[in-house]
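INFO  loader      accepted 1 record
INFO  loader      residues=83
INFO  predictor   begin
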Amino acid sequence: MSQLQPYILSLVVGFGVGAIYAGLAVKSPAPPIIALLGLLGMVAGEAGVQWLKGHQNFVQACLHEKSFAVNAPDRVAKDRDAL
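INFO  predictor   done
INFO  writer      dumping tokens
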């Protein structure tokens, strides 16, 4: 539960600030949708890079398979001859 505490606190404080803004009829300094989409993109990008760093073999395997895509007809012929 202690790992979730900062997130819950952030959500509660954000809700409180939003309620104060609405009560005072003050516009938010940033457009909420644009700001949230930007933050989502930042978090997704960071997570994607971290995932790729942890899965270097996966990336290398994809690049390796792509390099053989150019020679696909030769590989198909070799596979057929092997049967």
